[in-house]
Amino acid sequence: MKNLKIVTVPNKILKKTTQKVVDFNESLIDQIKAMTKALRGEGGVGLAANQLGIDNRVLIVECPYEDRGIIPLTCFVNPEIIEYSNETDLADEGCLSIPPIELETERSKKLKVKYQDEMGRTKKIAPKGFLARILQHEIDHLNGIMFTDRVREKYLSDFPDLKSKKIVFVGSGEFAAIILRGLISLGLNIPLVVTEKAKPAGRDKATKFTNVHEEAIRFDLPILETENINLDLEKIKAQDPDIIILSDFGQILKNDILTVAKFGALNLHPSLLPKYRGATPIQTAILNNDVETGVSLIKMVPEIDKGPVLSQIKIDIDEDDNSLSLEKRLAVAAVKLLYHSLPRLIHNKLHPMDQDENLASRTKKFKKEDGEIDWTKPTAKIDAQIRAYFPWPGSYTFIDDKRLIIHQTHMDDNKLVLDVVQPEGKQIMSFTDFIKGFHGTKPKWFGKIK
Length: 450
Ligand code: ZN
Description:
alpha+beta, Peptide Deformylase, Rossmann fold, Methionyl-tRNA Fmet Formyltransferase, Chain A, domain 2, 3 domains, seven-stranded mixed sheet, five-stranded antiparallel sheet, 11 helices, 22 strands, 26% helix, globular, binds zinc ion
């Protein structure tokens, strides 16, 4: 069986009850091998056959992570939950078929499960804790149920009046696209997605839709492309919105739009406001070697990022985070923040807190030239810069008068270890490979690297 790709929402096979396995043959063994490869490739802990587009009742589980409890690779064919404990708990779940969303999901703590192994022998187990959670998640897949279906069902039954609230979503970049995916999975009513008009980009100047635009197409939501949102006031008004949620959007909204929705226009900003207002809060937090950052939900006012804070969520910045990985984790946090804040918003239980102007700071836009490495700086600063400027504007240095782009580094005993580099105009490669083919004069900065 060739390498199979993981199927993501909204694919129909994820909504379908899968077929019972009757033949325990060579092709089943091949399928399990392909599933194992895909699971390990993604670093997941469980995978159901239909997540690879295969319509049968096979799932695998494997947890190599000690902190979550090691589970050896196990294959469950035709699994069936024959008993659920009444006692449940809540924990974050994620799914390779709707990355990178993570939401609290309620599951039974203990189960009794009947299944067959890959040879067709019937077995019974009584899993609890993490294994019980994974099995409930994966057996749901085999029955056409996503974990987000469970979350949505509970959310909208806990807060039934959220269902009818009309949310106009405004955004463009990947941070916003992930938030939109989260709102869709919560089953909220989004009558309109507003995004910036597609612009020609890249070398071939092909028109490129925004990430939010692509996401809205995938989920079949109505889209309004705009060059100036303020001129589209009537189209937004026509939706009679209850809430406007904006994130990662490059235009400034005038007061007419900010006041059109009953519960106002809210912005999700990836920093702990009033810290790091402006365009580059994620990069700046890494550049400054901060150990934590977060997302703020604010009520928008005409001055950018200055509105009162409605709620915040904090996350740690890892030593190996770059702007791409941190953006993704902040977007996941933003979805959690909305999950908790929206019910409180519509019941007027959020208490706006004015931002303390004395603590406010602004971030600046970066230019390509900011990426040149200054080797007189301490190595920890250089490492932080490389992580902060990945993927944009990128970091580079010169070697034999040729530009070398540095994509990835890490620290080892105060020395900088270069992991991934790219000589200008060439392919991305490991630094080790680069050095093998390098016969010029070694620059002074080699003294700072390991
Ligand atoms: Zn899943």
